[in-house]
Specification:
It is built from 21 helices and 17 strands. With 521 residues, the chain is α/β, with parallel strands linked by helices. Strands 10, 11, 12, 13, 14, 15, 16 and 17 form an eight-stranded mixed β-sheet that branches. It has a seven-stranded mixed β-sheet with strand order 1-2-3-4-5-7-9, with helices on both faces. It has a two-stranded parallel ribbon with strand order 6-8. The structure holds hexanoyl-coenzyme A. Hexanoyl-coenzyme A binds next to helix 5 and strand 6.
Amino acid sequence: MLSSDQSQKDLILDLNNRRKKLAEGGGLKRIETQHARGKLTARERIEKLLDDRSFNEIEPFLQHRLSDFGMDKENFPGDGVIAGFGKIDGRRVCVYAQDFTVIGGSMGEMAGKKISRIMELAMQAGVPVIGLNDGGGARIQEGVYSLEAFGDLFYRNVQASGVIPQISVICGPCAGGAVYSPALTDFIIMTRGISNMFITGPEVIKTVTGEDIDTETLGGADIHAGASGVAHFTAENEEQTFELIRKLLGYLPSNFAEAAPVVVPQDDPLRMDSRLNEIIPAEASLSYDMREIIQRIFDLDSFLEVHAAFARNAVVGFARLHGQPVGIVAQQPAHLAGAIDIDASDKIARFVRFCDAFNLPVITFCDTPGFLPGISQEHGGIIRHGAKILYAYGEATVPKITIITRKGYGGAYVVMGSKYLKADLVFAYPTAEIAVMGAAGAVNILYRKELKDHPDSENERLRLVAEYQEKFSNPYIAAAAGHVDDVILPAESRPRLIAALELLRDKQVNSPAEKHGSIPL
Ligand code: HXC
C-alpha cells in the first residue's frame, strides 16, 4: 500500500511498474513457450487485431479472490483474460482474449466477470464483440465458481445473439463445455495448426469408445471447417485470422438496429458481363461453378464465402452490390448436383437467419434437383433439417430477391426463396426449369404402364422426356402464372439486382405478435 506522503512521481512509477508486470502476463518464460509454439500472446493478438493504439483495457488489475489451492501464493495478472474496447477500421468493437501464459488462460470467477462486463458494455454500446479463445477451460481450482463463469458467459452470448455480431476466434485449446460459448456466437474462425475444439479429448474417447485419434484429427481447424461445420472460416496463421475478422466486420452493421456499412462503389452498377450468358450449360446434366456466377455479378472482389468447406453443395457468403453488403445463398451444381442435404439445410438456414437479424438483404440463386435422396438422409432427419430453410426464409423480413438459374424442382424450389415464402422479387434465367420434378423422373411416373407395354420403350421414353422438357422445362410457364416476376438474361443480373435492392431499401414488414417462433431444430 502506498503511503500518503509518497510523491506524485512515486505514484506514477508504481503504476508504470504494475502495468509492466501486467504486460509480462504469466512471465517471460511462458511467453517464450507461447512463441515457440507459433502462437502470439493475448496482448500481441489484441494489438495486431485493433487499429493502432486504439485499445482501452478494462479491469486489468482484476484478481481472483479465492485463497484455496495455493492460489494466494502467486499473482495472476489480469486473472488470465485481457478485455477492453477499441476500433477496427475506425469502427468501435469490444474484445477479450484469454491469456494462455496465465494459468493456461483458464476461466475462473473473476475472469468470467471481466468477460461478462465487456459483453455488457458491447451490448449497451451496440458494437460487435470478438472473443479470442486460447485456454484450458474451467479453472480447476475454482470449481463451481468457474462453472458459474461459463454459465454466465453462455447466458450473455444468448442475450447478445441478434443484438450485436459476435465473433469467436479459436487460437489455442478450447475444450469441454467451454466450446459452447463460441458455438453460441455468429462466427467461429479457427487458426490452422494451433487451435482445436472438442467436448471430450482423445484420452477420454479412448477410454470410453476405444477409438484412437489425435487432437488435430479430432478437433483441428480443417475438420471443423469441413466435416462438422462448427467453424465458419479457417486461417493459415494469426495474421490471416485478424485480416479475416477485419474483412468480415466490413459487411456487418455494429448492431441489429443499424444498417450494414455501405462503401463507396468502385464497380459500374450497369456492368453486364456477357460471359454470364455462357456459364450455364444447355445440357441440364452438366454442371458449372455457381461461384463464378456470383463473382461476375457482385461488386468486383467483394465475395466472402462463409462455411466454404462445409456442405459444399450450398454456397453462402457476403458480397456487395453497388457498395451495399448483402447475403448470398446459392446451390452449387458442381457438388452433389446442388441437391439439398442435411448439412446444406443447416448451413443455409443459419445464414439466412443471421442476415435477417442484421439487416442484410438475401439474394438467392436457385439451382437444385431437390432434396438429396437416401436412407441416411431420411433417417438423419432431412425432414427436420430441411424445414429449417423454409422457416428461415418465411421468417425473414429483409429484402429477399431470388434468381432461378436452372433447376427449381419440387419442394426444394419452394424453399429456396420462392415467392410463396414472400420473396420480394423472383427472376429466372432462360435456362430455368421449374417443375415438380425433372423430366426423366416425371416421365417414369406418369407413363410407367405405357412404357412397360411399348414395343420401343426406350425411344418412346426419350420422346416423352423431350416433350415434357418442351412443355414444362422453361421459365415462361411460371412467368405466365406470375410465380416469376421476369425472365432475364444472366448478363442483366447485376443492374436488375441493384435496381431491385434500391427499391426495397426501406422495406417494412409487420410480423405477427409473438414471443418468438419455434424453429424446427
Ligand atoms: C487450471 C489449468 C487448466 C485449468 C491448464 N492449466 N488448464 N489450470 N485449470 N483448466 C494450467 C496448467 O496447470 C499449466 O500451469 C498451464 O495452465 C499450461 O497448461 P499445460 O498443461 O502445461 O499446457 P499444454 O500442455 O499446452 O496443455 C494445454 C491443455 C491442458 C490442453 C489446455 O492444460 C489441459 O488439458 N487442461 C485441462 C483442460 C480441461 O479439461 N479443462 C476443463 C474443460 S471442461 P503451469 O503452472 O504448469 O504453467 C470446461 C467446463 C466448462 O471447461 C463449463 C461448461 C458448463
